[in-house]
Amino acid sequence: MARQLDQKRRDSGFDQEALDEAARTGFANGAFEDLAEDVPAVVEEFYPSTGPIDGEGTAAREVTPSLRGKLDDKVARLGPG
User: Of 42, 53, 54, 79, which residue is least crowded by CB atoms under 10 Å?
Assistant: First the structure.
C-alpha cells in the first residue's frame, strides 16, 4: 500500500525529495536559538497579560515578575474549571 501511495503521489507531481530539500534549506536559513533572555518575550507572546483598556483603545499591560506569576494570572482569569 505504501508503494502504491508513493507511486500515486509521484504520478501526480508530488516530489518528497524536493520538499525535504526545501525544508532543510529553510531551516538552515532560520535563526533558531533558545536563549534565556528570549524566554519572557516568548511567554508574553503565548500568554499575554490582559488588563484594562487605556484611552487609546489598547489593553494596558500589567507587568508580572515571573513566569509563575503569569501562569497564575492566566489560571485566575480562566476561573474554576
Answer: 79
